[in-house]
Amino acid sequence: MTYIWRVSWLTELRAAGWEAELTSDLLIVGDRAFRVVRRARAPWPREVVSPPGPDCLLIVPSITGGAAQAVEAAGWSWASDDGRIYLRGMTRLPKLAVTTKRPSRVSMAAGPSAIARVLLEEVAPLTQTRIAARAGVTQARISQVLADMRSDGLVVRARGGWRAEERLLDRWLDGYPGPGGVQTHWFGLDDLYQQVSRVPGRVSADLAADVLAPWRRPTHVTVYSTANTDLEAHGLVPTGPDQATLTLVTPADPSILATPSPVTDRMLSTPAPWPLAPVTQILWDLRQSPAADRDEAIEALRQRWQEAR
């Protein structure tokens, strides 16, 4: 019996001239047969194990770059429902590793971005009225955006309101244009915990991630604030972004300071020593980091977020 999934990559394989057939157990491409292993989510890099045999294909809804690298290094082939595929030893496939589904109706402009953030920071379904109040968007716009998100499989309607699917986080992270506003960069010799205690605001980047999902020693912190704080009086000196230990941002995006984050509260084992930025913003800031192990830190934080929901 043929097993049907939302797999645009299968159509592309056939369009490229491959004889390809997908069943519940196998993907057959040309003269090769890949044993199918279906999972509800991609593994975190530290969860990856060796495949149970040669030519095993892991199929997941979506997969991040760090997870894909770990899966490939372990000897797997993989495919994702968002249209990407990697088959070991098939050199003609890289050109097919693109999403070919219809263009999304959902952009991450200010309104949709704020709506997505509200949903991603919540642990329970939200009514349209509550989403509108938190996002600062009209009810009419909420209805339109939620309909588009539902069409793209980014949200579901549950008892009590609307919930975000995990793939909405990927869409938000890929499409979010950034906080905007004014940024200044500072260097200090004191511990980051001491540096950040001098700035009123919401804490993000390495230090916030270390509080929520410890992975490595934090080397940088971003603080979102509208306060006019004299950091030089506290022993910090202006510097460039590459040398900064603290980045102070007065954001143009109001949702960073305004959006409550019940999921972040649930992720904490003990109260945070200072207000934290929304977890969506912390993840976005981590993605901007040049650190070699940023993908592992992101995966650790995503796992905590997923568990808390």
Automatic annotation (TrEMBL):
Designated name of the protein: Uncharacterized protein
Record-linked Gene3D superfamilies: Winged helix-like DNA-binding domain superfamily/Winged helix DNA-binding domain (1.10.10.10)
Organism this protein belongs to: Acrocarpospora pleiomorpha
Top-level taxon of the source organism: Bacteria
